[in-house]
Amino acid sequence: MDINDRVQELIKNYGQNDQRTDAWHSKRGEMLTASEIYKALSDATPAQKHEIILGKLTPRVRTEGPGPRALVWGTRFEPIAKDIYCSISDFPMKIVDTTCIPHPTVAFLGASPDGIILTEGVRHGRLVEFKCPISRTFSDDSEVPNAYYHQMQLQMECTQLDTCEYIEFQFRTPSYSEWVDSKAQYKGFYAVTDDEIQVKYRELTDTRDPSTWRREVLETSDDWNLVYWTLEKYRMKVVEHEKDWLEKNIQSITEVWNSVLEHRSAGTLPAHPKEKTILTL
């Protein structure tokens, strides 16, 4: 299938941003997904396999509040990262969000890419995967973390697209005075409610100062707090589809999924593996 036809088909069928909604979580509960697939591979530890199997057998616990700090950090900065990434493209570029995309032949596999690039030239139709680590550092020469490499491979398997751009952004949240003095090329702020549930962003092209933006955009500004950010660095790596990735990993992946089905049928949960503790002096 022509790349343009494939991209249009994906957008038509899966071009919606429902990630982290109840429907999205429900769909992911019935399959092994890209972000967790490293736990189902042959080199995964017994504890990792136990974790992914248990996660498919127990109901998702809905908690009050925003969630784990690292997850919240990545979720809040991803829209900013996407906007910056589009703005630095040589050609006009748009990133289309997607929902969970099932694998075309393996029903229990699925993936939710961060988006599909629409632009001119060779980058058209590439997937994108954004990472905004809260503490992990990186350089241009850093290897793509193993879990993220396998995540992108399954994303390309599910979408039948051959290339993914892996992008890492290092953001910092300075004080207001540090933010004002910062010479960073990209800096801005967003607003978050006192309960940390709702977030509103100032667009990159918006030149209003914080006080004016707060007054004109936020209905009840007393309920919101401004978070100032600067972009310290970023990098991009092109990851190509490893054509025999699924063939090399399908046996281990299938064994893990079969364990899910067996426990589900029997109404049981897997026992936690006993792993030796290795003491490093």
Describe this protein's structure.
There is one protein chain. By secondary structure, this protein is of the alpha+beta class. It has one domain: Lambda Exonuclease, Chain A. 36% of the residues lie in helices and 20% in strands. The protein contains eight helices and ten strands. A seven-stranded mixed beta sheet has the order 2-5-6-7-10-8-9. Strands 1-4-3 form a three-stranded mixed beta sheet, covered by helices on one side. Helix 3 crosses helix 8. The longest helix has 22 residues. It is globular and about 60 Å long. The C terminus is likely disordered. InterPro entries: NF-kappa-B_Signaling_Reg, PDDEXK-like_dom_sf, Restrct_endonuc-II-like, YqaJ_viral_recombinase. It holds the Pfam family YqaJ. This is YqaJ viral recombinase domain-containing protein.
Shape: globular
CATH topology: Lambda Exonuclease, Chain A
The N- to C-terminal Cα distance equals: 56 Å
Unreliable segments (pLDDT under 50, ≥5 consecutive)? 277-281
State the order of secondary-structure elements, H for helix, E for strand: HHEHHEEEEEHEHEEHEH
Number of helices: 8
How much of the sequence lies in strands comes to 15-25%
Provide the gyration radius in Å: 21 Å
Count the E strands: 10
For the sheet with most strands, the description reads:
7 strands, mixed
Roughly what is the average pLDDT, rounded to an integer? 91
Instruction: State the CATH class.
Output: Alpha Beta
Residue share in helices? 25-40%
Q: Tell me the strand order in the biggest sheet.
A: 2-5-6-7-10-8-9
CATH architectural group: Alpha-Beta Complex
Q: Based on helices, strands and strand pairing, what is the structural class?
A: alpha+beta
Number of domains: 1
